[in-house]
């Protein structure tokens, strides 16, 4: 049985990966940490939980030893839009937290999952069907920290033989924990506002294409790559995973199929628009499909239907 530690377990990705890991591997075998302990009390009280800063290596090492941890999901990070407000803080948390995790993994023989992002690409990257191995010169501090993180994970693998693995997540859409401070957050907010007000004011231009993924597929990717046969992995970290690519106009058109009165307007935020314009329109994910059988289940229509049905069930 695996013994898993999830750092950043109360965030958007962390909380849902934590729930699925506790369901699969048993609550006592999945230890959670986060900088806060006042959200999702079901997770906080449903198994071992520690309130700790992701850079506090001493405390995290003690937790790893006490619970015989063999796999760490390092999910604590400042997202792209928030990162631009305080770049040094974002660098310190995103890279400081990752180095701390990698060192603990090296000393204790743990495997590590680290999420990278479409943010690891920049304006000189090929924009459509962005290849797995290509130009990476991001212009946001979030992207800079993601590229550095990808390289650091590769380094710990070839230098110290740490079993590091990871994927480049698109914008993640979910209906449990809201995202915070990302450029792709609009794609989640739009569903809530559609159900509540039949109107959404979008902070990106209507024709801005970005890759997105529905949470069940994102969870599946994170767990599947950690269970993949290492002999098949030619890449280890930062696999492109693609699921769907759309712009706000298209998403609004799909929402209108289910909520006919829905309207969208635009008040463009120049900071988030500049970040979005520097990212790819769509990724090519051949390596993930061949090396560990990646295959998403949801497309824009099935995701839209599930999001709206779920939000309606909860709120109306
Ligand atoms: C963000 O918008 O910052 C994130 C991401 C794409 O990594 N959702």
From TrEMBL:
Gene Ontology terms for molecular function: L-threonine 3-dehydrogenase activity
Start and end residues of each NAD-dependent epimerase/dehydratase domain: 4-242
Family matches, as InterPro entries: Epimerase_deHydtase, NAD(P)-bd_dom_sf, NAD(P)_epim/dehydratase
Protein origin, superkingdom: Bacteria
Coiled coil stretches, renumbered: none
Biological processes per GO annotation: L-threonine catabolic process
PANTHER family: L-THREONINE 3-DEHYDROGENASE (PTHR42687), L-THREONINE 3-DEHYDROGENASE, MITOCHONDRIAL (PTHR42687:SF1)
Similarity annotation: Belongs to the NAD(P)-dependent epimerase/dehydratase family.
Protein name, entry field: Nucleoside-diphosphate-sugar epimerase
Taxon lineage: Bacteria, Pseudomonadati, Spirochaetota, Spirochaetia, Spirochaetales
């Amino acid at each position: 049985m695996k013994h898993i530690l999830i750092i950043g377990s109360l965030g958007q990705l962390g909380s849902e990966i934590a729930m699925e890991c506790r369901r699969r591997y048993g609550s006592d075998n999945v230890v959670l940490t986060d900088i806060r302990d006042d959200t999702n009390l079901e997770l906080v009280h449903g198994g071992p939980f520690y309130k700790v800063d992701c850079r506090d290596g001493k405390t995290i090492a003690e937790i790893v030893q006490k619970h015989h941890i063999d796999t760490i999901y390092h999910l604590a990070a400042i997202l792209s839009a928030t990162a631009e407000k305080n770049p040094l803080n974002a660098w310190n948390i995103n890279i400081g937290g990752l180095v701390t995790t990698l060192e603990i993994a090296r000393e204790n023989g743990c495997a590590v999952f680290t999420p990278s992002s479409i943010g690891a690409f920049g304006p000189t990257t090929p924009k459509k069907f962005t290849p797995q191995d290509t130009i990476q010169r991001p212009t946001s501090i979030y992207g800079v920290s993601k590229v550095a993180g990808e390289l650091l994970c590769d380094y710990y693998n070839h230098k110290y033989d740490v079993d590091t693995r990871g994927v480049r997540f698109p914008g993640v859409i979910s209906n449990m924990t809201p995202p915070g401070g990302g450029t792709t957050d609009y794609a989640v907010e739009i569903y809530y506002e559609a159900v509540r007000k039949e109107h959404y004011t979008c902070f990106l231009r209507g024709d801005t294409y970005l890759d997105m993924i529905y949470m069940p597929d994102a969870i599946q990717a994170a767990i599947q790559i950690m269970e993949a046969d290492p002999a098949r992995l030619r890449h280890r970290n930062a696999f492109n995973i693609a699921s769907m690519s759309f712009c706000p106009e298209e998403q609004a058109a799909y929402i209108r199929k289910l909520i006919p009165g829905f309207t969208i307007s635009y008040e463009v935020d120049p900071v988030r628009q500049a970040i979005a314009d520097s990212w790819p329109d769509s990724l090519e994910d051949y390596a993930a499909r061949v090396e560990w059988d990646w295959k998403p289940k949801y497309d824009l229509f099935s995701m839209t239907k599930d999001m709206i049905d779920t939000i309606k069930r909860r709120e109306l």
